[in-house]
Amino acid sequence: MANNKSAKKRIQIAERNRLLNKSYKSTVRTLTKKTLAKCEEYKQNPNSDNKNQVMFSINEAYSIIDKAVKKNVLHKNNGANKKSRINKLVKNFLTSK
What is the value of pTM for the model shown? Predict the structure, then answer.
């Protein structure tokens, strides 16, 4: 256990940052799954409305990934890999009918 004030403060800050990082990572996973679900929906019923939902979902996922990279929650290469993976999966869904 920490004995001085600065060590106690560092423990509190580390815990706060851990929870924030956990939140970002969880949101990235959730948005990735939602994007794939929207792709499945588009594959079942291909129309412009469903396609717009897929595009909106991609933009939302990219946005949160970029924010996580900006705040050093994710490494920039890890963020790029996540975006690339999402794009590759969506591209396969949109082109295959």
Answer: 0.85
